[in-house]
Write a structure and sequence with these properties.
Elements lengths: L18 E7 L2 E12 L7 E11 L1 H22 L6 H29 L1
Antiparallel strand pairs: 1-2, 2-3
Protein backbone atom coordinates (compact mmCIF):
# COMPACT_ATOMS: atom_id res chain seq x y z
CA UNK A 1 0.00 0.00 0.00
CA UNK A 2 1.44 3.34 -1.04
CA UNK A 3 1.26 6.21 1.40
CA UNK A 4 1.41 9.83 0.40
CA UNK A 5 2.81 12.55 2.61
CA UNK A 6 2.06 16.21 2.28
CA UNK A 7 4.40 19.00 3.22
CA UNK A 8 3.45 22.63 3.52
CA UNK A 9 6.12 25.31 3.74
CA UNK A 10 5.10 28.55 5.36
CA UNK A 11 7.04 31.53 4.10
CA UNK A 12 7.49 34.15 6.77
CA UNK A 13 8.31 37.81 6.51
CA UNK A 14 11.81 39.02 7.16
CA UNK A 15 12.06 40.11 10.79
CA UNK A 16 14.59 42.79 11.68
CA UNK A 17 15.49 42.47 15.36
CA UNK A 18 16.73 45.50 17.27
CA UNK A 19 16.82 43.80 20.66
CA UNK A 20 16.87 40.27 22.01
CA UNK A 21 15.89 39.00 25.45
CA UNK A 22 17.17 35.57 26.44
CA UNK A 23 15.85 33.35 29.18
CA UNK A 24 15.70 29.70 30.15
CA UNK A 25 13.59 27.22 32.04
CA UNK A 26 14.35 23.58 32.75
CA UNK A 27 14.67 21.86 29.39
CA UNK A 28 14.24 24.95 27.20
CA UNK A 29 15.78 28.24 26.16
CA UNK A 30 13.99 31.25 24.73
CA UNK A 31 15.26 33.96 22.38
CA UNK A 32 12.73 36.79 22.24
CA UNK A 33 13.62 39.06 19.34
CA UNK A 34 11.99 42.50 19.40
CA UNK A 35 11.49 45.21 16.79
CA UNK A 36 10.24 48.67 17.77
CA UNK A 37 9.16 51.05 15.03
CA UNK A 38 7.05 54.19 14.75
CA UNK A 39 3.69 53.97 13.03
CA UNK A 40 1.80 56.92 11.65
CA UNK A 41 -1.23 55.30 10.05
CA UNK A 42 -3.74 57.65 11.63
CA UNK A 43 -3.65 61.39 11.00
CA UNK A 44 -2.10 63.43 13.79
CA UNK A 45 -1.38 60.31 15.82
CA UNK A 46 2.02 58.72 16.15
CA UNK A 47 2.18 55.29 17.70
CA UNK A 48 4.90 52.83 18.47
CA UNK A 49 4.59 49.33 17.10
CA UNK A 50 6.36 46.53 18.98
CA UNK A 51 6.70 43.14 17.32
CA UNK A 52 8.12 39.99 18.91
CA UNK A 53 9.40 36.82 17.37
CA UNK A 54 10.16 34.16 19.96
CA UNK A 55 12.34 31.14 19.28
CA UNK A 56 12.29 28.20 21.70
CA UNK A 57 15.26 25.81 21.70
CA UNK A 58 15.96 22.60 23.56
CA UNK A 59 19.30 22.62 25.48
CA UNK A 60 21.22 20.56 22.89
CA UNK A 61 20.11 22.78 20.01
CA UNK A 62 20.82 25.93 22.06
CA UNK A 63 24.38 24.80 22.71
CA UNK A 64 24.88 23.79 19.08
CA UNK A 65 23.49 27.15 17.93
CA UNK A 66 25.77 29.02 20.35
CA UNK A 67 28.89 27.26 19.05
CA UNK A 68 28.02 27.72 15.38
CA UNK A 69 26.98 31.34 15.84
CA UNK A 70 30.24 32.04 17.72
CA UNK A 71 32.22 30.57 14.84
CA UNK A 72 30.21 32.61 12.35
CA UNK A 73 31.00 35.82 14.29
CA UNK A 74 34.72 34.96 14.43
CA UNK A 75 34.81 34.33 10.68
CA UNK A 76 32.88 37.55 10.02
CA UNK A 77 35.34 39.62 12.08
CA UNK A 78 38.32 38.00 10.38
CA UNK A 79 36.88 38.94 7.01
CA UNK A 80 35.41 42.39 7.76
CA UNK A 81 37.07 43.59 10.95
CA UNK A 82 36.00 43.83 14.57
CA UNK A 83 32.32 44.52 15.18
CA UNK A 84 31.98 47.71 17.20
CA UNK A 85 29.03 49.31 18.91
CA UNK A 86 27.66 52.06 16.63
CA UNK A 87 28.52 55.61 17.72
CA UNK A 88 24.83 56.56 17.48
CA UNK A 89 24.08 54.17 20.37
CA UNK A 90 26.59 55.95 22.61
CA UNK A 91 25.11 59.36 21.74
CA UNK A 92 21.55 58.15 22.38
CA UNK A 93 22.63 56.59 25.67
CA UNK A 94 24.22 59.86 26.84
CA UNK A 95 21.12 61.80 25.84
CA UNK A 96 18.97 59.26 27.65
CA UNK A 97 21.04 59.61 30.83
CA UNK A 98 20.76 63.39 30.67
CA UNK A 99 17.02 63.08 30.16
CA UNK A 100 16.66 60.65 33.06
CA UNK A 101 18.80 62.87 35.31
CA UNK A 102 16.65 65.91 34.44
CA UNK A 103 13.48 63.89 35.11
CA UNK A 104 14.85 62.66 38.46
CA UNK A 105 15.71 66.25 39.40
CA UNK A 106 12.20 67.42 38.44
CA UNK A 107 10.64 64.53 40.39
CA UNK A 108 12.71 65.42 43.45
CA UNK A 109 11.62 69.06 43.18
CA UNK A 110 7.98 67.97 43.03
CA UNK A 111 8.53 65.81 46.12
CA UNK A 112 10.16 68.73 47.96
CA UNK A 113 7.35 71.07 46.89
CA UNK A 114 4.78 68.51 47.97
CA UNK A 115 6.42 67.81 51.35
CA UNK A 116 7.36 71.31 52.20
Amino acid sequence: MDQQFGLTLKDSNLFFAEEVFMSSQPGKFFLDFKNVSPRSDLPKQIRTCVEHSVVRLDPFLAKNFWEKFGNLLKDYEKKYGKIKRPREFEIAEKQGKKGRAAQAEADEKVKMDYVG
